[in-house]
Amino acid sequence: MRNLLRAMPLPLPDDLSLRYSHPEPIVRLFLAQFGREETERILQTDNEAPQTVLQVNPLRGNAAALLEELPGAQAHPWLPGCLTVSGPVEQTAAFREGRVYVQDAAAHLAVAVSGIEPGMRVLDCCAAPGGKSFAAALQMQNRGTLYSCDIHPHRLDLIERGAERLGISILETHLQDASQPVPAWRGAMDVVLADVPCSGLGVIRKKPDIRYHEPSAELPALQRAILAQQNRGLRSILGTLDYALPPSGKHYVISFHVDKVSLYLKSNQYTPFIVTGGLILSLCAVFFYSLFSSRIFKQVQSIKSGLEKIGDNNLHYRLPEAAYSGELGSISRSINKMSSKLETLIENEYLYQLRQKEAELAELQAKFDPHFLYNSLEIIRGRVYDSGDTETADVIKKLSQLFRSFINKKRFVTIQDELAFCSSYFSLFHSPSSDNLQVVYDVDSSLLFCGIIRNLLQPVIENYFVHGFDPSSSQNHIIIRCAENGPEYIKITIIDDGFGINANRLEEIRAAMNASDDSGKQSYGLKNLARRIQLFYGPAPDRCQRHRADK
Question: Is 0.85 topped by the overall pTM?
Answer without folding.
Answer: no
